[in-house]
Design brief:
25 strands; 8-stranded antiparallel β-barrel; 4 helices; 5-stranded antiparallel beta sheet; mainly beta
Length: 456
Amino acid sequence: MGNARLRLMSGPWETPEPGEAAPAPRTSGPAPATQTLSCPSCGGTIELKAAGYTVTVVCQYCASVLDVANPDVRIIKEYHEAAAQLAIPLGTRGTLKGVEWEAIGYLQKSEDGFTWEEYLLFNPYHGYRWLVTDGRGWSFGTMLTRLPQTTSFGKGLVLDGRSYSHFADGRAKVDYVLGEFYWRVRVDDNVRTADYVRPNWMLSWEGSGAEDSWTLSELLKAGEVKREFGAGLSAGMFSGLPPMPHQPSPYAGALKPALAFAAIAIVALFVLTMMFGGSQRAVTETVTIEPDRPGRSITVGPITLTRRQAVTIAAQAPALDNAWVDLDYSLVDRATQESFDAYGLAERYSGYDSDGSWTEGSRTAATKMAMLPAGTYDLLVDAEAHNWTGQMREVQVQVTVNRGARFWSNLILAMLFVIIPVGIMLWRHLKFENARLAESDRGAAPEDLFASLGGD
């Protein structure tokens, strides 16, 4: 959608004329009374909800723009067109942030073909707020009376100790207006804009040349506006559209502790493998075998295991070349005659071809037997050698039995069980952030993808 984004505008679009007071929240005293007047264009009756504050009102019957700042109501622009069907009809009341608000004005705006809607809310004791939607969710905007500060890096802003990242600049235009407003607003009015975001919050600037204004908007929970302002709202956060600029990643909250847990778990697994996976030599024997002849059997032992532990059998044939040795092992408990069987293979091949010399295989074969019961064992070794090119006359094989073993494959498997779920969560988070940042001026910059993990 290019530079399309949710704009949270505060107005005013034009500085009030002399004698027209800017609206301010009322903190005491009686609420302002409503006032009725007749539209000079169509004769329809218009009720002003914020009489005394309202500067312009758009007739709900013919959409003509009226100046009500002076006693003699005059037409600013005459339209004679039907009013739009609004998701929140003007006059609807709802409670947000513990305050009851009434929708008194409606703006439809656009920027580079992207359209959104803004509802002006009014409460006589709390002033004005904005309710904004672009079809993906709702935001509640408050006009600021203080200025944000530029960060030391110059790429964002700071307000009340919280940092906001620059998202996009643009120019917004009014496409449709209805209801009453505290400044002069007309169709085709336009302002320069800039948005700065952090999860759940957007800080928006607008400049009309005569005045700058700032709005701080908070993303509302899904369903909150529908619950408070009635049915018929189509906007929602789960409409299949790209994320909003200030919409937090649904994975960010769980991802940060998950990454920390994964790092701790991997370190712990490695330490445990090193601590408890060490080996200690028990016994060594050497057997000489003639290739392509009947094999030989030897007994290696005794091998004493004082506790339940693994055993590593290492076979090494230093002179092996273009031949292989098959090794069948049987570790037999002297007391119970229980046998634990395993297999080993040492093989080594070499030669020359068009690419030069080559080698393949290993003269050493390590066989690991996991968690054997404590006891005294004998290792029965059946060894048989075979020539590949028929040149070796005999092969010497050294068989060493070690108490203990390190199962690196188990460590890798355990690490995968830890990493894969976190990796999937991280991939989904990055995919979400990539879609969100794609609408910004910078696009999905790599340094911004992980920025949301720093917290709300």
